[in-house]
Design a protein that fits this description.
The protein is of the alpha+beta class. It folds into four domains: about 5-20 and about 170-315, 3-Layer(aba) Sandwich (Molybdenum Cofactor Biosythetic Enzyme, Chain A), CATH 3.40.980; about 25-45 and about 145-170, Molybdopterin biosynthesis moea protein, domain 2 (Alpha-Beta Complex), CATH 3.90.105.10; about 50-135, Molybdopterin biosynthesis moea protein, domain 3 (Molybdopterin biosynthesis moeA protein, domain 3, Beta Complex), CATH 2.170.190.11; about 325-390, MoeA, C-terminal, domain IV (Beta-clip), CATH 2.40.340. It is built from seven helices and 26 strands. β23 (about 340-350) and β24 form a beta hairpin. α4 packs across α5. The chain is elongated. The structure holds ligand LQZAQKY5 and molybdate ion. The site of molybdate ion has 8 residues, from loops. Pathway: Cofactor biosynthesis; molybdopterin biosynthesis. This is Molybdopterin molybdenumtransferase. Catalyzes the insertion of molybdate into adenylated molybdopterin with the concomitant release of AMP. Its cofactor is Mg(2+). Keywords: Magnesium, Metal-binding, Molybdenum, Molybdenum cofactor biosynthesis, Transferase.
Length: about 400
């Protein structure tokens, strides 16, 4: 197995094939799920001033024991312009600026108001500064609030808006062409007779990319014919060309020869992983070519480990790889061989429960899985209850 490339090495070589695509600036509404093309620096303080966190009265903590006089009001967007002197209080609302001179908020539930008069009716604030959000408590102008290459979440979109931005620099959408290869294939939904079968890989891969900033071009089904496949490669204009099937060693496995015939180059072929061994990668013009195995589960697993990280990388991700978590195993697992194994499993209350049959053609088991257990090369047997690494897939 010395000719099989380790998964991590293949991933690194794949990402080295092309840099991130060009930068564009998009409105916040279109930025979620994309990666920042530069660090985001706060353009303002948040809060912009000391603000009240409660509805109540702004006063001086030292005055709490005595009757107070209410001298005005501070509301969000309309602060009190004067200053609070000894013996005075200002009616205040959540989000309103704390007036000069005041240092503490008395919540209204603990206050007795009579005309302009104010007295403590409950325990009152326990410390100076109670219920005040200090200026810049969240972030200060000039602070880096989101790093470059960060995957923009809904919370980060809110953060960027609060920091003064209506748009952010990200990478343009990556154009991904998906080509299915095989004489036996018909498009999903078309009648399949005799030895024909629906091309399930193309819609599955498009669905697997649906949360990424991509434009998917359907390259259709290409016959197992060198000239047809070479012509299909030549016709495509994309950043990433993904093929499924025809990656192995059979007489009809033509992706590699067609890539070379079209003027492309091969970077690597055959990985020490199961499923997914025949994976290949190379370049064709400005495009990265990724040849996934035809077996549906192999296509899914290699797309998870290679295609999605490639798109994240081209989109400017600082960390393009899927999250690895760990959980206890529900059942023992045998020793692993020379290929890194990605076992389909359900994450149950008893732990990670691997399917007893791990055939790479079995889509029903894949669809019933929410985890891929990662078994390292030559891992020893493991017992029920032992922690195992897994990739969440649902
Ligand atoms: N002698 C050897 N044979 C095989 C080896 C090997 O090392 N030596 N590797 C095996 C491994 S591992 C895999 S994985 C498969 C993958 O081979 P290919 O990438 O060439 O895939 P195909 O032969 O074209 O197809 C395999 C299987 O998947 C079905 N298929 C293909 N495309 C689709 C699609 N779009 N939608 C649904 N199903 C698809 C196809 O009908 C086949 O059943 O090779 C092993 N063989
Ligand atoms: O390694 Mo292949 O990818 O059996 O399934």
């Amino acid at each position: 197995m010395a000719d099989l490339l380790p998964v991590a090495e293949a991933q690194a070589r794949l990402l080295a094939l092309a840099p991130a695509v060009a930068v564009e600036t998009v409105p916040l509404a279109q930025a979620v799920g994309r990666w920042t093309a530069a660090p985001v620096i706060a353009a303002r303080d948040q809060p912009f001033a000391d603000l009240s966190a409660m509805d109540g009265y702004a006063l001086r903590f030292a005055d709490l024991g005595q009757p107070l006089k209410v001298v005005g009001e501070s509301a969000a967007g309309k602060g009190f312009l004067g200053s609070v002197a000894a013996g005075e209080a200002v009616r205040i609302f959540t989000g309103a600026p704390v007036p000069d001179g005041a240092d503490t908020i008395l919540v209204q539930e603990e206050a007795a108001r009579d005309g302009d008069g104010l007295a403590l009716s409950g325990k009152g604030p326990l410390r100076i500064g109670a219920h005040i959000r200090p200026r810049a408590q969240d972030f200060a102008a000039g602070a880096e609030i989101i790093s470059g290459g960060a995957h923009l979440t809904p919370a980060m979109i809110g953060l960027a808006a609060a920091a003064g931005y209506g748009a952010l620099p990200v990478r343009r959408a990556v154009r991904v062409a998906i080509l299915s290869t095989g004489d036996e294939l018909v498009p999903a939904g078309a009648p399949a007779s005799g030895a024909q079968l629906p091309s399930s890989n193309a819609p599955m891969l498009a669905a697997l990319l649906a949360d990424l900033p991509v434009t998917v071009l359907d390259g259709g089904i290409v016959r197992d014919d060198l000239a047809a496949m070479t012509a299909a490669f030549t016709a495509l204009d994309a950043d990433v060309i993904v093929t499924t099937g025809g990656a192995s060693v059979g007489d009809h496995d033509l992706v590699r020869p067609a890539l070379l015939a079209a003027g492309g180059s091969l970077d690597f072929w055959k990985i020490a992983m199961r499923p997914g061994k025949p994976l290949l990668a190379g370049r064709l013009g400005g495009a990265v070519v990724l040849g996934l195995p035809g077996n549906p589960v192999s296509a899914f697993v290699t797309a998870t480990l290679f295609l999605r990280p490639l798109i994240a990388h081209l989109s400017g991700a600082a960390d393009p790889f899927p999250r690895r978590l760990s959980a206890p195993l529900a059942h023992p697992l045998p020793a692993n061989g020379p290929r890194e194994d990605y076992m389909r499993a359900r994450l149950t209350s008893a732990g990670l429960d691997a399917w007893p049959v791990q055939d790479s053609g079995m889509l029903a088991a894949l669809a019933g899985s929410d985890a891929l257990i990662v078994r390292p090369v030559h891992a020893p047997p493991v017992a029920a209850g032992d922690l195992a690494e897994y990739l969440p897939i649902a």
